Amino acid sequence: MTTQHETEKVSRRSLIAGIAAAGGTAAFAGVAAAQSMPGHDMAAMQDDAPSAVNPYSAPSIHEGGHGQMITVGRVDAAANGFDPTAMLTDWDFGTVSLMEDGRVLRTFEVEAIDKDIEIAPGVTFPAWTFNGRVPGPALRAKEGERLRIVFRNYGSHPHSMHFHGIHSWRMDGVPGAGLINPGEEFIYEFDARPFGCHLYHCHALPLKRHMHKGMYGAFVIDPDPELHPEFADAARSRLYGTPENARWQELVMVMNAFDTNFDNANEFYAVNTVAHAFAQQPIRIEKSRPVRIYLVNVTEFDPINSFHLHANFFDYFDTGTTLTPTLRTVDLIMQCQAQRGILEFSYAEHEAGPYMFHAHQAEFTELGWMGMFDVVEA
Amino acid sequence: MTDTSPGAPTAGWRRFAWLLAPLLVLAVAVAWIASVDPLRSFNNGAPPVEAIAFERVVLDSGGIKTFIRAGGSEPMTIAQVQIDNAYWTFTMDPPGPLARGSTAWLQVPYPWVLGEAHRINLVTNTGATFEHEIPVAVPTPVATQGQLTQQAIVGAIVGILPVAIGLMFYPALRGMGSLGMGFLLALTVGLLAFLLVDMTFEALELSLQSAALFQGQAMVILAALSTFLILMGIGRRSGQPEGLALAFYIAFGIGLHNFGEGLAIGAAFTAGSAGLGTFLVLGFAIHNVTEGIGIAAPMVDRRPPLWTFGALTLVAGLPAVFGMWLGSLAYGPQWSALALGIGAGAILQVIVEVTSYFLRRAEREGQSWLSAPVLSGFLIGLAFMYVTAAVIKI
């Protein structure tokens, strides 16, 4: 739906652009002189309408990290039914019961629902969702548990849940293995392994469309400290519910993007769906507590996405399947589509204030994937 | 209907009733269609068709301003604005949804860069995008008196000066034999033929940039056709035009052409996509000299009063100045297309009249209508215009 009005066409009678470039042709002196150049005349700027923003001056601190380079307005989170900030810490632990052999059975319930969502102020996207939200629920389990995911398709198209993890081919969520029609139900069942930061997504065809329509979510398996005696401390700090884990500020961030005009290129980039959400509402971080981010990249149409932390460095655990960092002391990592990992860092030594983070593809940043940590004392 | 003679009222009323009946049926049909909405069953839930035309772009110290016209089937809403693939704050005047055909100014405080290209991309509430490129960013000239004077000078150089120079060939052209006259008239037709082709394509091209609701291409063709017929009608009220009258028709047609030319030059300034070089202005001037020769041709065997030369020069050349002013002050591609369409119609009329004058002459003097001088005159006219146009074509 892009417009056909491409370039302001000026031809024979229009004496074009090129003239200046025609090399050495003397500018028509009188005319050139008559063209004032207000945009680049510092003196002229003072005379401008007082209400107008001066685009050539540096933004003030009050304008936030992006000054005038930001989407206009606010997304109605209530109407959407989800809020990117709340999603950062909103884990779905399912319901727990014990099986006959004494093992834990964790049951999740997930529904596929067609839903129009607001992905940027005033912009509606006809999404396909898991549980009415994009990204879908952040499922969290413990290594070794038996997982049962009851999946019901209330959408208008066939859907599935394909988990990145270890399981039988029959549970893979591809055609013939848990890909179901509208109105149907399927129960995926497998053991939670390996531990790490994973994801799930719909594997119906055409895959690209089902992905960028919003059918994905984070899937985290915490390590069992008893299975990793040599790194028990690290494992305990990851395992939800332990005192060691409680001191961490854990955030789940799903890097995603939306192609609103169906040209196979994204108009909006974000973490947890809403462009510029964390630029407009910075994420509160307490100085004294370390930060752990479960970062998942599901950006469609672009080969990679990235995460860059300002004024700080972090340790990175690729795919989260190790208890020692796979990268130490970096301030930027990149992830291919479906690549994910865990970031650990701290602002304990810093002075309180706003610290930026964003994709270090400048284009993604400027199209919405940028936010701030509001580091506070405490 | 207003016949007052006795006995006639019945016939008058009956005629009135016959006129009323179809109108009544039409009104009922419209009311019925509007209330029953038989098209409802075709509604398949698809989003409404949206369209945006960018009619003006202004670059100044406040950033980028653009004047847009909506062409959607339903009112449409601009949700976000990207400049160069970055979301940017913006204000819209008037705010709110844009009804079909309505217009608004968008102001974006974007620090554009002199001499570089920028890309505006509007995102509507449905996620549809509408893109517009600024090929070379230069400040939009402000309409000051100095500016208008400068434009008038440029307009005079590309419009008035060459016509005046062309007319100065008049004494030299006089005393030509009938073969020479044939050559000269054919030369005129040749240059006019070039202008007709060039202008028509230019108008059609411009019309593509205007909002769909203007139906640009149909508008251009219909404007040209109407102009042609009206001018033919006027011209032939008292026989077929010759001599001075024909010269004025040629001047008028060329004047419309120069008006369109001026519009485009002025608009190019405003669009921030033009710079004027001495080289180019000279190219234009030389290119347009032929126009003056063409105007002079039908008067060669008359003896017109001196003032007519001044008048002819102004009729043919002055519109370039007005065009420049209008083009730089208020510009929509549809208006330029319309002006050029009218110009094409006028040129066509002149071609027809000059040709018919030439044919009558040839018959009177018992000459072949396609002699070597005539053919070469036509081709030289075409070639001269083509080659000099190549110089100024970008």
From TrEMBL, chain A:
CDD domains: CuRO_1_2DMCO_NIR_like
Reaction(s) the record says it catalyses: nitric oxide + Fe(III)-[cytochrome c] + H2O = Fe(II)-[cytochrome c] + nitrite + 2 H(+)
Keyword hit for NAD: no
Domain Plastocyanin-like: 117-224, 263-376
Pfam families referenced in this protein's UniProt entry, alphabetically: Cu-oxidase_2, Cu-oxidase_3
InterPro entries for the chain: Cu-oxidase-like_N, Cu-oxidase_C, Cu-oxidase_fam, Cupredoxin, NO2-reductase_Cu, TAT_signal
Needed cofactors: Cu(+); Cu(2+)
Chain segments annotated as transmembrane: none
Alphabetically ordered keywords of this record: Copper, Metal-binding, Oxidoreductase, Repeat
Binding site for Cu cation: H159, H164, H201, C202, H210, M215, H360
Subunit architecture: Homotrimer.
Name assigned to this protein: Copper-containing nitrite reductase
UniProt organism field: Devosia sediminis
